[in-house]
Amino acid sequence: MDNNRQNATINWFPGHMAKTRRLMAEHLKITDLAAELVDARLPLSSRNPEIDKILGSKPRLVILNKSDMADSAANAKWVSYFEAQDITALEVSASTGKGISKIGDYAKKVLAEKIEKDKARGIHRNLKIMVCGIPNVGKSSFINKIAGRAGTKTGDRPGVTKGKQWVRLDNGIELLDMPGILWPKFDSDDVAVKLAFTGAIRDEILDVEHLCCILLEFLRSNYPDALCERYKLSDIVEKTGYELLENICKNRGFLISGGEFDTFRGANIVLNEFRDCRLGHITLELPGQTELVYKNEFGVLTYAGQ
Length: 306
Hints:
Elements (H helix, E strand, L loop, with lengths): L2 H4 L8 H13 L5 E7 L9 H7 L4 E6 L6 H12 L4 E4 L11 H8 L1 H9 L6 E6 L6 H9 L17 E4 L4 E5 L11 H10 L9 H15 L1 H8 L9 H12 L10 H13 L17 E3 L5 E3 L3
Parallel strand pairs: 1-2, 1-4, 2-3, 4-6
Antiparallel strand pairs: 5-6, 7-8
Helix pairs in contact: 9-10, 9-11, 9-12, 11-12
């Protein structure tokens, strides 16, 4: 691996991200509620602090999307975490439809006071909800599922939705799908690494072998059974991420000329299998958990534990 790349701060802020911030600010006045989609596997790391600043006091519903890929016990902890902050949170899966039918009821619950005031004034209109979040949390897939049709463009590449789109539902709700917005710079390596695990940051700008080693150390410490079962490993407690990666390459027969392990291929396989949920239901962070990574005496990012 290229050691010079390991400690580089990830900085990715395409021009359309700045435009999205302006669009969100402009449309706040005509929306009643912000439905903030986050990745249930990393609910805090997939919350953009820029969105907090833009939305301000706007009523909010946190959508824990991809909850079917996360640890169910962890999902419950995150719902409780947000509720303790007076934020309504709902577990959803845009791919399976889990929780989708509850969106309208939850939105009306959050806006109950406003709805009653409007009724008292004789105002009856559709509720307008802004759907926002970072790239790759599944906003377009979420809207497609809730609308019951493929009305918006979707894809696996981060940031595929480029412009705002309105979708009218049958239950008196209109959704405004905003393109994903990342913040200008990741000040925390912890946040950047966890986002990279899920594919929210393009692999092309990363050292995938190093990233995979951090993931393997996290799995070793938190989901050892899943790691051992998937890759036929044993005695993993004292092994580093790179040693685990080499063992995986050995077991999968990933070799290059000279009999060396093809760790690049192995790393890509592990990351893809994690993202496809082939390692099981895994959550990358819990409320009150310590940071995922730290810099040891060699300046290398390593898993710190809970």
